[in-house]
Design brief:
It is a single chain. The chain is an alpha/beta fold and 473 residues long. It has 17 helices and 19 strands. Strands 3-2-1-4-5 form a 5-stranded parallel β-sheet, sandwiched between helices. Strand 4 (73-78), helix 3 (83-95) and strand 5 form a beta-alpha-beta unit. Helix 11 crosses helix 12 (315-324). The longest helix is centred in the middle third of the chain and has 17 residues, at 198-214. Bound molecules: S-adenosyl-L-homocysteine (SAH). One of its GO terms (molecular function) is precorrin-2 dehydrogenase activity. Residues 223-432 form the Tetrapyrrole methylase domain. This is Siroheme synthase CysG.
Length: 473
């Protein structure tokens, strides 16, 4: 180990930096998080530094450093991005007794600044002794993802709970409390608390958690209705990942891709309640019962739904089943198929001067093909994302043309949006049913009415239907 990691107390102590450009800015942003007295020497400082000086966040001296300028400084940063000037200022600072760092020059530095994950008062410092900055950044990104965003708040408030938590029996019960506090119910309790009175609000929210542990009550069950996105695991939210990682039971639809199910905790019970368009399926009331049964047994349940759970996801029926029994639930949004499909074809769902609103439609509902305000949709420039629209294509085409929609209105079908087997079918209202039939699509498909793939836009009205549109983008 060539560098020994320590945390230096900087409150009220002097830190000096020479430099006024980008390197100086980067270091100052970090240093301003501390309570150090910062002095910057720079003959021509960047405007940000001038503004920070005016705001009283640091002292700015607009000239080059001279002997004696670093007197009593604990740390010195040479950030002039000029080897000669850096060597000169370092010599001054060392003579004045400061430990020195030369930015981007490991060899000449007496100390280096690590990559930092900041959940003040919890700070994680990552160093590779300059060997692998890329690795340090990857570790940092990984930790940023893992550690709850409000970990700092939990830690600050946690100090106040330390004494009270000592009333829990030593060992397992106390460990369970802290693990729950930092990684399960705790983050959930402080999620969304505003910064202004964060600590009081968090303390109140966390009191209940402690009393429950003190009373040795079982952790109550909970169901999170989680959006799994359109299929690409990278389109999952961080919240979804964390919940999957902590789930006791995962109840999922058929559309969820295997790569996403892989992310669930190894011990989790996986229940497929797959439902398909017109095919056989577990009934909604069976699903409701299944959720209620597991939550009542105390499980942390993830009810995983494709896309966003609030879009054609039968969310309300399940929420009502849960609330009717007084059970706790939360909803975690996901990326809906419409968002993934337009992203694929390089278009927006809304666009200035084309459409100021967009409709999310379903091709069929419980009674069969679904009816909509066809006259409104038939007007030029309208856009709709039609879910479950493949089988209803002929019906939709008929209704829209009857209400005067132009036969050459662009329509794009995106099958398996965001997945490896994604396909794009550029079509028009006139040819939609025939094009869909010819394409033999088996996967979930979203029909984008009123939108052509960006690259094919100019070629309208006869768009290529050979699935090449996507590659041309
Ligand atoms: N809650 C989901 C929609 C469920 S309804 C969401 O927000 O996306 C199921 C329909 O969604 C499918 O019939 C299909 O029209 C659409 N769909 C879901 N995933 C899709 C995908 N990856 N690509 C294209 N369409 C998809």
């Amino acid at each position: 180990m060539q560098h020994f990691p320590i945390f230096v107390a900087l409150a009220g102590r002097r830190v000096v930096l020479s430099g006024g450009g980008d390197a100086a800015l980067a270091k100052l942003r970090l240093l301003m998080k501390t309570e150090a007295h910062l002095t910057v020497f720079a003959p021509s400082p960047a405007p940000e530094i001038v503004a920070w000086a005016e705001a009283g966040r640091l002292r700015l001296v607009e000239r080059a450093m001279e002997p004696g300028d670093a007197t009593c400084a604990v740390l010195f940063y040479a950030a002039d991005e000029n080897a000669e000037e850096d060597a000169r200022t370092v010599a001054i600072a060392r003579a004045d007794g400061a430990l020195t760092n030369t930015v981007d020059n490991l060899g000449d530095s007496q100390f280096i600044t690590p990559a930092i994950v900041d959940r003040d008062p919890v700070t994680v410092a990552i160093g590779t002794e300059g060997a692998a900055p890329v690795l340090a950044r990857a570790i940092k990104a990984d930790l940023e993802e893992r550690l709850p965003a409000r970990l700092g708040l939990l830690a600050r408030v946690g100090k106040a709970f330390r004494k009270a938590a000592d009333a829990l029996p030593f060992g397992r019960p106390r460990r369970d409390f802290w693990s729950d506090y930092y990684f399960a119910d705790g983050p959930r309790a402080v999620d969304g608390i505003e910064d202004a009175d964060a600590e009081d609000a968090a303390r109140a929210a966390l009191d209940g958690l402690l009393s429950r542990h003190l009373a040795a009550e079982e952790r109550p069950g909970h169901v999170a209705f989680v959006g799994a996105g359109p299929g690409d695991p990278e389109l999952l939210t961080l919240k979804a990942r964390k919940l999957l990682d902590a789930a006791d039971v995962v109840i999922h639809d058929r559309l969820i891709s295997p790569e996403i199910l892989e992310l669930a905790r190894r011990e989790a019970e996986m229940l497929d309640v797959g439902k398909q368009g017109f095919g056989p399926s577990a009934s909604q009331s069976d699903i409701n019962e299944l959720i209620v049964k597991h939550v009542e047994a105390g499980a942390q349940v993830v009810r995983l739904k494709s896309g966003d759970p609030t879009v054609f996801g039968r969310l309300d029926e399940e929420v009502e089943a849960v609330t009717a029994r007084g059970l706790s639930y939360s909803v975690v949004p996901g990326i809906t198929a419409a968002s993934a499909a337009v992203a694929t074809i390089g278009q927006s769902l809304t666009k200035r001067e084309r459409n100021a609103s967009v409709r999310l439609l379903t091709g069929h509902d419980m009674k069969g093909f679904a009816d909509h305000d066809w006259a409104a949709l038939a007007r030029p420039g309208e856009v709709a994302a039609i879910y479950m629209g493949k089988k209803a294509a002929r019906f939709i085409q008929g209704r829209l043309m009857m209400h005067g929609a132009a036969p050459d209105t662009p329509v794009t079908v995106v099958e398996n949006a965001s997945r490896a087997d994604q396909r794009v079918l550029g079509s028009t209202l006139a040819t939609l049913p025939a094009d869909i039939a010819a394409a033999e699509m088996n996967g979930p498909a979203l029909v984008l009415y009123g939108l052509a793939p960006r690259a094919a836009e100019t070629a309208l009205p006869s768009i290529d239907t050979s699935f090449k549109a996507q590659e041309a983008l």
